[in-house]
């Protein structure tokens, strides 16, 4: 059996080549706009998604706030662990009558929150930053309530405790503002 000679190769015209390429892209589902209005150049970029879509648009000063929070939590934790009596005296303007274990436990809890703050500072994931801010906001709210109830029970209102309460309200407002701003959907341009 003799093999048939192959027909001579023909050159495609550029117009028909362009049309076939557009048809191939249409069949693959690339080149057109998707539901979000994005144009994908290849099927791989369509499957993996656009990196810019997942990039976190951070509010101005967020990283600085996380740094200040992490440092503040760490310093307060170390003070509560090492100098529990002095920390209590500064806030409530009276000596700690009971054992200092409660203040040291408070320091341990603050140190745990400080580790969360440091993790939130060095991550790029939006959900981790949001949970970090939410943890911080919960701490400020609980500390405000506990300190307020304690001051009412004791019946004294020292200046240091009032400053602590006002600072907690301010920190809570700032933290919730960042949390709210980070959770918003970015506007389409």
Write structural notes for this entry.
This protein is mainly α. The chain is built from eight helices and no strands. It has helices at residues 14-28, 43-48, 51-54, 62-82, 84-92, 101-121, 126-154, 159-183. Helix 4 (62-82) crosses helix 5 (84-92), helix 4 packs antiparallel against helix 6 (101-121) and helix 7 packs antiparallel against helix 8. The protein is rod-shaped and about 110 Å long. The mean pLDDT is 79.
SSE order: HHHHHHHH
- Extended strand count: 0
> Which strand-content bin applies to the residues?
under 5%
Unreliable runs? none
User: What is the tally of helical segments?
Assistant: 8
Class by SSE composition: mainly alpha
| Chain-averaged pLDDT | 79
Give a short account of the largest sheet: none
N- to C-terminal separation?
A: 67 Å
Given the C-alpha coordinates, what overall shape results?
rod-shaped
Radius of gyration of CA atoms, rounded to a whole number: 30 Å
What proportion of the residues is helical, as a percent range?
A: 55-70%
